Amino acid sequence: MYNGILNVYKERGYTSHDVVAKLRGILKQKKIGHTGTLDPDAEGVLPICLGKGTKLCDMLEDHNKIYQAVLLLGQSTDTQDISGKVLQRQNINCSEKEVAEAINSFVGDYNQIPPMYSALKVNGKKLYELAREGITIERNARTVIIYHIEIEEIHLPRVKFLVSCSKGTYIRTLCHDIGENLGCFGCMEQLVRTKANGFDISNSLKLDEIEDLRDKNSLEEKIMPIDRVFQAYPVVIIDKKFDKLIYNGNQLKKECVKNTKVLENDCSKVRIYDESKSFIGIYEYNSEKEQFNPVKMFLGD
């Protein structure tokens, strides 16, 4: 079984669920999960967790993401992207300077109303399911953060830009809101996720490339080991006498540690390894009690 994280390039037309299903067939294993959805019309980086790596899914989703988007001004759609039904059209009377100013005004904290065509659940039902039934319900605005926007091209009615944002940001809603701000409507024409959870599009693999690497028995070298995600945490090696404790996910005392010098630095979370350098999991160190408490274990299936 494969264990770790695979940087997959999700192509247009596939849902994130489709990618997981196809990988289960390619890799012949069931334990596979993704770290955050991409719309079917979007493409780009989709980190996929394999085997023991599926325990990382809830730990990776909070990371910031970078997208390259194309905004089409002059029309709005029911899905807020080009694939939806056109609801309104409007002539564009604003200048390129006004467009740039409107886009840059969204940098910072931003109260965004999630779109009806989204996987968010209300009373146990996904919003897009309600939308397909012709039902629109009120949604509460959520605070998201736009860290940075870089406008790459303006050729009205289209604008291509890069955006770095927090978890939960809908780029098609950002495009819609920019159009509303300008008074000429807008929707998202294209979206590519170029970076997510530290993974870059330049190293991502399409499904046919993954299949080819599998056939050549060289896929393993493309899978990121689980512990590399936690490189910022100090390494703590446990004395062999206490293997039973770490293999069962028990609390650990300072005397269990072989390399106690690492604890002289101010650290809270650490990577725990046994003497054979096998990664066990993430522990939190309580310096007052000189005790390690388990946060996430990566042993077992």
From TrEMBL:
<dbReference type="GO" id="GO:1990481">
    <property type="term" value="P:mRNA pseudouridine synthesis"/>
</dbReference>
<keyword id="KW-0413">Isomerase</keyword>
<comment type="function">
    <text>Responsible for synthesis of pseudouridine from uracil-55 in the psi GC loop of transfer RNAs.</text>
</comment>
<feature type="domain" description="tRNA pseudouridylate synthase B C-terminal">
    <location>
        <begin position="172"/>
        <end position="230"/>
    </location>
</feature>
<dbReference type="InterPro" id="IPR014780">
    <property type="entry name" value="tRNA_psdUridine_synth_TruB"/>
</dbReference>
<feature type="domain" description="Pseudouridine synthase II N-terminal">
    <location>
        <begin position="24"/>
        <end position="171"/>
    </location>
</feature>
<dbReference type="InterPro" id="IPR020103">
    <property type="entry name" value="PsdUridine_synth_cat_dom_sf"/>
</dbReference>
<dbReference type="GO" id="GO:0031119">
    <property type="term" value="P:tRNA pseudouridine synthesis"/>
</dbReference>
<dbReference type="Pfam" id="PF01509">
    <property type="entry name" value="TruB_N"/>
</dbReference>
<comment type="similarity">
    <text>Belongs to the pseudouridine synthase TruB family. Type 1 subfamily.</text>
</comment>
<feature type="active site" description="Nucleophile">
    <location>
        <position position="39"/>
    </location>
</feature>
<dbReference type="GO" id="GO:0003723">
    <property type="term" value="F:RNA binding"/>
</dbReference>
<protein>
    <recommendedName>
        <fullName>tRNA pseudouridine synthase B</fullName>
        <ecNumber>5.4.99.25</ecNumber>
    </recommendedName>
</protein>
<dbReference type="InterPro" id="IPR032819">
    <property type="entry name" value="TruB_C"/>
</dbReference>
<dbReference type="InterPro" id="IPR002501">
    <property type="entry name" value="PsdUridine_synth_N"/>
</dbReference>
<keyword id="KW-0819">tRNA processing</keyword>
<dbReference type="Pfam" id="PF16198">
    <property type="entry name" value="TruB_C_2"/>
</dbReference>
<dbReference type="GO" id="GO:0160148">
    <property type="term" value="F:tRNA pseudouridine(55) synthase activity"/>
</dbReference>
